[in-house]
Structures are given as C-alpha cells and as structure tokens.
Predict the 3D structure of the following.
Amino acid sequence: MIVAHLDLDAFFAAVEELEDPALRRVPLVVGGDPHGRGVVATANYAARRFGIHSAMSCAEAVRRCPQAVFVHPRHSLYRQYSQAVWAVVREVVPTVERTGLDEGYLDLSGVAPDFLEARRVAEAVQAAVRGSTSLTCALGVASCKVVAKVASDRRKPGGLTVVRAGQEAAFLAPFDVRKLPGVGPKAEARMEAAGVKTIGQLAGLTDAELRSLLPGKVGVLLRNRARGIDPRDLELQTERISISTEETFERDVSDHELLHTELRRMAVRLADHLSATGDAARTVTTKVRYPDFSIRSRSTTLPAGVDDAEVIGELACRLLDRALRDRPGALRLVGVGLSNLEPYRQLALA
C-alpha cells in the first residue's frame, strides 16, 4: 500500500486570512472569548511563535501574546472551503478517507505504481489545492497510515515528505515518543519516567520491558506503530449514531474549574468531528464516574442540532453541575457524548 496523509496548514486561521488578508500580518487566534473560558481552535503561524496552540485556553493565549487578534470560529464557512478542497483532491486521487475538515488519508496505490510516482501525485494534489482554494497543505507519503501521518507534520507548512518502504522504522526512530499517533499523556508520562523518550526507544523495547511499562494490547499496538507496522486500511464508509470522548484522571478531581476546562476541551474535539462529517447533535450528555466507580450521566435534548464547540461546552458544564448537585464529590472520570446526530443544514434567509 502507498498512502498519503494530507493536513491543511492552520486551516481555520488560513481561511480567515483569505477572507481578510490584513490578518496575515498579525498573530491570529481562532477560538472563543479571550476574556471568558474560550478555547483556542487554531492559530496562525505568527501566533504559534508565541507558543499558542489548539486546546489552550484563550486566556492563556492572551497572556502569551496580548496583541493577538481573536476571531470566533465560522464553521459554516470552513465547511465550504473544506468541501472545495476535498472535491479537488478527489479529482487527482479518487479514494480518500476524511478524518477531519482539514485532514485525511489518500490511497495512492491506485494512481501510483511506486514511490517515485507517488511523490509526483502528491505534488499534483498540493498544486491542485493551492490553485483551486489558495490554501496550502502538507503531505506525508508512506506504506502505512501511522508513518504517513508523522511524515505530514515534518515539513509544515506546505511541505512534502516521502518515506519509502523499508525505511519506516529508521524514519520514526528520532522523533519524540509523543509524536507517535496513539500515545496519550499517560503513556507518554510513563515512558518518560522509564527513560523512553524517542519512538526508536519504544520500538526497541523487549516483550518483558513492554509488559511492565505498557501492559496489554495497547503496548503491543504502540510498539508495532513505532516499528512502522500499521495494517489499517482506509475507512471509506463510516456512519455513527453517536460520538463521545472521556478522560480518566490520574488523581480524583474536585475543582469545578478544572472539570469545566476539561469538558470544554472535549467539546472542541467533538465539534471538530461534527464539522468533518457535516453533522449536528440534538442531545448532549455529560458522564461522570466517582472514586467508588459509580457512574452518573445527565443529558439535555435541544429542538435543533448544534455543532458549535462553545455551545456544546457550556451545555456539558451545566450538566456536570447538575450531576454534582445531585451527588457532590471528587470525580475519577468525566466525559461528553453527542447523540441524535443529523445532517447540518444552514437555514436560507428570505
């Protein structure tokens, strides 16, 4: 298999710069209210030089760069640009798996017999996207998904990295272990404590070392990925009736502000998924788990679907407060779920 991972460069911010070219000259943050509890959705490269990144609180972004310009996300506009991007990509490579508004995998096997031709096809995709939408994208080309995704991040913005078959493990080895897809904060912390700092060190763990550090199937999966082994095919048809995300804390958490911040971050991730699929959700659910492992959930159903991260986050926080009024106490886990998904339809104004 020859697969490419495409990642549009600072997509939301790039769209805003196209709509208002004056924004190209300033640090730009797309996100919530900088004076409230908003979260950064993305930032342009001028803002990133100040250490601003997605999922950071907007208040922290202001502290790092007081002169930054903040704009509220315009998801309908981003969907329009995204549709244009993927339409032109499919003219070059018909088989794609979209994993978000701004990223996805391309099956180059059907249009490129070898990696030399795959590079030419990837360059053609970049030129087509730039010529059609004025947006730039980075691509990674490899024999499997995990290597392609890491490669696409190597030369951003607008770069192209090709990792030929047989070079996967050597390519991945020098990168920080957190760069490997699937490595979360907990796994990274455990590996850091054990002195495993690079992907190559993870790949070199013996079975016994792996069992003690990352027991179970997850450890084997991550070590395989570190070795450039990833048998996943493109997922061409996926349909979900609900989506959710949750976080188990290292220590029980009772601070309401911290819990709210975590829920708002989850809301951003879920809203990104809705944007990618073109869906909206009518039902929002907050799930909590207490130290004794008992679970409570609170839900609200709206008359019309929502796909905005701030709205979802606010609803999730209210539901959390309801649950904690019913049973106060520290929490081991919080989660947010969305259901009653329906296609997003923008109302036409008369």
